């Protein structure tokens, strides 16, 4: 187990500090995911301090995808990660968004190992290890979006079971595919329907409509699209929360929002209209870009122009120049198109100027409709760039394209 001590190196609030407790007050270990497809202790700390105005990073530990572990707070620190239960809990965050990504074996094993060590040190039991969602008041929160039963079972086993090992009693086949029929197919169809991927009649027959529904599900879950239900799709089906886009911010216990995290503007001040008014060259820079009088003072006129700019760029219209707005302003400067949403092959197909920009960058016919040809061209581009080949334009692919 590789633990990096980052207790003194992560961003901390200038004036605020977390309160502390005695070790005997710790009763739970809380498991989180970052709800971001990538990230690091450094990035989370910046976000929690600079954007949420918290004393420091939310978590005591961050487990990275490669299995390395970052130690962020002494155990006696009461950081913000599970609201009313903060005082009794230690927070462990696994980097990743397990609503759409798989928890990889190496990361799961590292987390299990860390939890075992902590249980030992803190004299707690496996039953004290809870997912964020299992804490009082958080049943609505898709965190950490893995099966906690399975996680606790792995802790007890003493050996690590791969996360995709889904229970396979005799009535349930590991793989379901076109032509199969039976109770397990019917169950699958019901599940698809519940999640909003209508497979047609619930008849227990894996026909073309079921294939189509599975493919649509796979596409939105961002896993390989083959219309076959294997371990990955099964895992995604049991963890998928269709309403996960409407997560509210419930400070002081929230995770970083995916969009903001990916754009955390390094070293830029957050600018807004407050009294006394903020002054500086950065204000002037904003004013020049949004077309306000460039006097270097962030007043109501500047706020109004910023809001206009935000409206035109599909940003949250709040008049505050935070990381996303900074990013958009920087793009404007370079005449680069702005990333605003994930683009993928969907039914109905996605349309828009952003699709058109992607097509132009790929040198294919720019009709502004994200169809199979566009998806294929994106895959080829991703292959050439040596990045994850999924046919989906997310922030990484967008950045490579422009
Ligand atoms: Zn959480």
Write up what this structure looks like:
Residues 160-170 and 242-266 have low confidence and may be disordered. The strands form two sheets. A six-stranded mixed beta sheet has the order 1-5-4-7-3-8, covered by helices on one side. A two-stranded antiparallel ribbon has the order 2-6. The chain has helices spanning 41-51, 105-122, 148-157, 183-194, 208-220, 231-239, 258-262, 281-290, 300-312, 323-334, 353-362, 372-385, 395-401, and strands spanning 3-5, 19-20, 28-33, 61-63, 69-71, 77-78, 89-94, 129-131. It has 402 residues and is of the alpha/beta class. The protein folds into four domains: 3-157, Peptidoglycan recognition protein-like (Lysozyme-like), CATH 3.40.80.10; 183-239, PGBD-like superfamily/PGBD (Muramoyl-pentapeptide Carboxypeptidase, domain 1, Orthogonal Bundle), CATH 1.10.101.10; 263-334, PGBD-like superfamily/PGBD (Muramoyl-pentapeptide Carboxypeptidase, domain 1); 353-401, no CATH class. Helix content is 36%, strand content 7%. The site of zinc ion (ZN) has 4 residues, from loops.
List keywords for this structure.
single chain; alpha/beta; Muramoyl-pentapeptide Carboxypeptidase, domain 1; six-stranded mixed beta sheet; two-stranded antiparallel sheet; 8 strands
Second rung of CATH, namely the architecture of the largest domain: 3-Layer(aba) Sandwich
Counting DSSP H or I runs of 4 or more residues, the number of helices is 13
| Strand segment count | 8
Give the uncertain stretches in residue-range form: 160-170, 242-266
> Roughly what percent helix?
25-40%
Mean pLDDT: 83
CATH topology label of the largest domain: Lysozyme-like
CATH superfamily of the largest domain: Peptidoglycan recognition protein-like
Largest sheet entry? 6 strands, mixed
Any ligands, ions or cofactors bound here, and which?
zinc ion
Residue share in β-strands: 5-15%
* Inertia-based shape: flat
Gap from first CA to last CA: 39 Å
Look at the helices and sheets and give the structural class.
alpha/beta
Task: Output the helix-strand order.
Answer: EEEHEEEEHEHHHHHHHHHHH
CATH class of the largest domain reads Alpha Beta
Please indicate the count of domains: 4
List the strand order in the largest sheet: 1-5-4-7-3-8
């Amino acid at each position: 187990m590789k633990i990096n001590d980052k207790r003194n190196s992560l961003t901390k609030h200038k004036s605020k500090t977390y309160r502390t407790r005695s070790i005997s007050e710790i009763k739970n270990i809380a498991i989180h995911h970052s709800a971001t497809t990538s990230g690091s202790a450094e990035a989370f700390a910046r976000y929690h301090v600079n954007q949420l105005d918290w004393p420091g990073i939310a978590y005591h530990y961050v487990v990275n995808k490669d299995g390395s572990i970052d130690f962020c707070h002494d155990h006696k620190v009461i950081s913000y990660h599970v609201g009313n239960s903060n005082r009794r809990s230690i927070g462990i965050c696994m980097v990743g968004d397990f609503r759409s990504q798989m928890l990889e074996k190496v990361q799961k094993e590292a987390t299990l190992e860390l939890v075992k060590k902590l249980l030992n040190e803190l004299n707690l039991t496996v039953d004290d290890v809870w997912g964020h969602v299992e804490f009082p008041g958080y049943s609505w929160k898709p965190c950490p979006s893995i099966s906690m039963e399975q996680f606790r079972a792995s802790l007890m086993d003493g050996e690590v079971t791969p996360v995709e090992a889904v229970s396979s009693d005799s009535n349930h086949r590991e793989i379901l595919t076109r032509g199969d029929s039976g109770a397990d197919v019917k169950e699958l169809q019901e599940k698809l329907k519940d999640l909003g991927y209508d497979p047609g009649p619930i008849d227990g027959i894996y026909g073309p409509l079921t294939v189509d529904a599975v493919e649509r599900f796979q596409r939105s879950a961002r896993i390989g699209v083959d219309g076959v239900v294997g371990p990955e799709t099964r895992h995604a089906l049991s963890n998928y929360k269709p309403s996960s886009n409407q997560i509210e911010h419930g400070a002081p216990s929230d995770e970083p929002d995916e969009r903001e995290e990916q754009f955390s503007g390094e070293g830029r001040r957050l600018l807004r209209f407050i009294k006394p008014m903020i002054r500086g060259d950065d204000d002037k820079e904003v004013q020049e870009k949004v077309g306000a009088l460039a006097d270097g003072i962030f007043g109501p006129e500047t706020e109004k122009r910023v809001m206009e700019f935000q409206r035109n760029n599909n940003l949250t219209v709040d008049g505050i120049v935070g990381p996303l707005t900074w990013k958009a302003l920087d793009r404007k400067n370079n005449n680069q198109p702005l990333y605003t949403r994930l683009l993928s092959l969907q039914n109905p197909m996605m349309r828009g100027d952003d699709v058109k920009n992607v097509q132009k960058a790929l040198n294919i016919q720019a009709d502004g409709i994200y169809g199979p040809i566009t998806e294929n061209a994106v895959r080829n581009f991703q292959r050439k760039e040596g990045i994850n080949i999924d046919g989906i334009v997310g922030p990484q692919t967008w950045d490579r394209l422009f």
